[in-house]
Amino acid sequence: RQEGLEIATYDDACNIGYCSINGATIGGWGANYTTVSTLVDFSNAVSASGPGVIIVEGAISGDAEVIIGSSKSIVGIGLYLNGSRNVILRNLKIANAQGPAVSIENSRSIWVDHCDLSSQANQGSETDDSLIRITRGSDYLTVTGTVFRDHSQAVLVGHADSNGEEDKGKFHVTFARNYFQNVESAISYRFGTGHIFNSYYENVVDGINTRMGAELLIESSVFEESGRAVFSENSTEIGYATIRDVMFGDSSSSAPAGNMTSNSVPYPYDWYVWETDQVRASVVSQAGQKLEFLVWD
User: Fold this and answer.
1) What is the pTM assigned to this prediction?
2) Which terminus of the chain is more exposed, N or C, with fewer CB under 10 A?
3) What is the pLDDT of residue 76?
4) How many CA atoms lie within 13 A of 116 on its CB side?
5) Which helix (H) or strand (E) holds 179?
6) Locate the Pectate lyase domain: which residues (predicted)?
7) Can you tell me the distance from the alpha carbon of 114 to that of 294, in angstroms, rounded to the nearest whole number?
8) DSSP assignment string, 192-229
9) DSSP string, 111-143
């Protein structure tokens, strides 16, 4: 076993956050494994009907947007989920994608875990190519152990103030144990209900913008060398945030106080939470493409 890697299996299900409730997120559990090393083979494997576990071997490059079908586990190019259900993306490194690294539209029960997402510094904007873009009523998602670096907009939840008819009551998303480094905006969050904990923000201009009635619970996280940490701006309606045990450094929170509490969270998570003084070291050492998969004959 390589030092610093976390043990996983290809059949792991999501066991933390919103993707663990209202229908299990198990990806392609129990299906045969397909190993791919070319863009064509990868595209064919992830768009095929039926459950599947797709293992990316080596580096795949190309100028394509790959569409992901339902009931897939992808272990490893921009990835596009539209109307997808029960999808797991793990241990992928995506750099300099044309458009979002991962785009999730009208999808449900998605787990993004231990990925490394980046671009050329200061590339991208909120409107076209966030590293992760969650839009059009997507729901019950978890993003864990992922690195977002060297980009303008890291995460966009909700693409427009005017899309409330489709988005209100959706966007239940958990973000945990993630590392935001050298980004202009970490998370822009409209309409939904978000649980954000154990995240480390380093050299971030704008941290979390809660907007259009979004309710966020932000816990046990650390900001260093960053600008505004949590705020509500640039939309026709404000959003809200409940802050618990966050180390702001020279940053601060100006977002209106929210109504979420730990009792509002509909899944157990005490077992998964690091103490705040452990967050920086733990996130830096563990986030990103750092899974080692056990395989049984």
Assistant:
1) 0.92
2) C
3) 59
4) 13
5) strand 179-190
6) 29-229
7) 16
8) SEEEEES-EEEEEEEEEEEETT-EEEEES-EEES-SEE
9) EEES-EEE-STT---TTT--SEEEETT-EEEEE
The amino acid sitting at 205 is V
Local structure of residue 249 (DSSP, 8 states): T
Residue 79 DSSP label: E
Smallest CA-to-CA distance from 108 within 135, 72, 84 is with 84
Domain membership of residue 143 (yes or no) is yes
Q: How many domains does the chain have?
A: 1
At position 275, the amino acid (one-letter code) is E
Is residue 1 included in any domain, yes or no? no
The residue behind tokens 């198990």 is 26
For residue 42, the surrounding DSSP H or E stretch is helix 39-47
pLDDT of residue 37: 84
- CA distances to 81, 166, 235 from 162, in Å: 22, 9, 10
Q: Smallest Cα–Cα separation from 83: which of 108, 54, 51, 49?
A: 108
Q: Structural domain of residue 22, as residue ranges? A: 6-294
Scored b (16 or more CB within 10 A) or e, 66-91 reads bebbbbbbbbbbbbbbeebbbbbbbb
Q: Measure the CA–CA gap between 175 and 191, rounded to whole angstroms.
A: 16
The CATH number given to whatever domain includes residue 37 is 2.160.20.10
* Residue 202 burial (CB count, 10 A): 18
What is the mean pLDDT, run by run of 10 residues, along the chain of 297 residues? Answer: 74 95 89 87 86 82 76 71 91 84 95 90 54 97 97 96 98 99 97 99 98 99 97 98 97 96 96 98 96 77
